[in-house]
């Protein structure tokens, strides 16, 4: 079974995955998939997603094929389809793909190997969204009526889209913060200013400024933190139990004052830790018949 976008999962399936990831974290469940082989195809840079999939595979007993865009025949012009078809022919059991093209997976629908989307351009990042949901659930034990502000480079962020839609259908109230150029008018959520977001949000979800998607157009880093970032002054305005999240990598001093990255409210490194357990749960369900994932993409 594939996991390509958050709409592939019903609310029930999301909750099943979060519960299973939690039981991996609490060591209440062990799954041994010794003998299976996966491949991680990353056409864009990654630290967390790639390494946490590797860690999840180690914990599940899965071996990984080695692949790099630079040393494989991708550098000779091999297409994504032919690379994936080759890995399927070699007998691998699943593939994780990160690719700069939005909805790259639509060209792979004829293949039979399970595909997990590790990020498709500015499209979606479903495994990041699931680890974010796990982190929020650990803090609040629910999503209903939570005030969530997603702040930053909304237009170029795949995390923003996956999280906004998923959290909204789980009952959270979504508001967005972005400079005008980085707003996305296709998202049906209101924009507010950063002071308002700091004042009354339960979850302040910051995003990385995605310079690599700006086509060489620069922005003023100095004024960005003051206008759109989380300063120490804004952190002091936050409610007692509110949390700070960021998918990372973090541009310290741009999206957030550097001293807040490891502050008591920050869940940034907890998000990374949860990424291992959520990816264990995702792989397990992609590979098991009768796992949490359904065949169709109808949402509840
Ligand atoms: N959050 C995230 O996707 O990080 P990487 O780009 O390092 O994988």
TrEMBL record:
Q: Which UniProt keywords apply?
A: Pyrimidine biosynthesis, Transferase
Note whether Oxidoreductase occurs among the keywords.
no
Among its keywords, does the record have Transferase? yes
Enzyme class name:
transferase
Annotated residues for binding of L-aspartate: 76, 158, 208
Q: What is its EC number?
A: 2.1.3.2
Instruction: Please state the pathway this protein functions in, per its UniProt record.
Output: Pyrimidine metabolism; UMP biosynthesis via de novo pathway; (S)-dihydroorotate from bicarbonate: step 2/3
Membrane-spanning residues: none
A matching Pfam family: OTCace_N
Q: Which domain of life is it from?
A: Bacteria
Q: Cite the Aspartate/ornithine carbamoyltransferase Asp/Orn-binding domain residue spans from the record.
A: 145-284
* Binding-site residues, carbamoyl phosphate: 48-49, 98, 125, 128, 248-249
The family assignment reads:
Belongs to the aspartate/ornithine carbamoyltransferase superfamily. ATCase family.
In Swiss-Prot or TrEMBL terms, this protein is called Aspartate carbamoyltransferase
Organism, by scientific name, is Alkalibacillus silvisoli
Q: What is the lineage of its organism?
A: Bacteria, Bacillati, Bacillota, Bacilli, Bacillales
């Amino acid at each position: 079974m594939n996991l390509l976008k958050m709409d592939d999962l019903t609310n029930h399936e999301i909750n099943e995955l979060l519960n299973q990831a939690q039981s991996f974290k609490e060591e209440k469940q062990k799954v041994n998939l010794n003998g299976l082989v996966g491949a991680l195809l990353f056409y864009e840079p990654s630290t967390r997603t790639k390494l946490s999939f590797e860690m999840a595979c180690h914990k599940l007993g899965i071996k990984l094929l080695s692949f790099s865009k630079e040393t494989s025949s991708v550098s000779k012009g091999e297409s994504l389809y032919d690379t994936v078809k080759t890995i399927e022919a070699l007998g691998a059991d699943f593939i994780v793909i990160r690719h700069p093209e939005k909805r790259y997976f639509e060209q792979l629908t004829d293949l039979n190997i399970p595909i997990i989307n590790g990020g498709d351009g500015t499209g979606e990042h479903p495994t990041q969204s699931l680890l974010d949901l796990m982190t929020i659930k650990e803090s609040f034990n629910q999503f209903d009526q939570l005030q969530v502000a997603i702040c930053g480079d909304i237009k170029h962020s795949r995390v923003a889209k996956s999280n906004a839609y998923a959290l909204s259908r789980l009952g959270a109230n979504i508001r967005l913060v972005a400079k005008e150029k980085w707003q996305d008018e296709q998202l049906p959520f209101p924009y507010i200013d950063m002071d308002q977001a700091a004042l009354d949000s339960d979850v302040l979800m910051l995003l990385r400024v995605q310079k690599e998607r700006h086509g060489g157009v620069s922005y003023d880093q100095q004024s960005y933190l003051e206008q759109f970032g989380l300063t120490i002054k804004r952190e002091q305005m936050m409610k007692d139990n509110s949390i700070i999240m960021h998918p990372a990598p973090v541009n310290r001093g741009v999206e957030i004052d550097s001293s807040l990255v490891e502050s008591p409210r920050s869940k940034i490194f907890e998000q990374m830790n949860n990424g291992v357990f959520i990816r264990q749960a995702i792989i397990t369900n992609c590979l098991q018949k009768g796992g949490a994932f359904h065949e169709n993409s109808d949402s509840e």
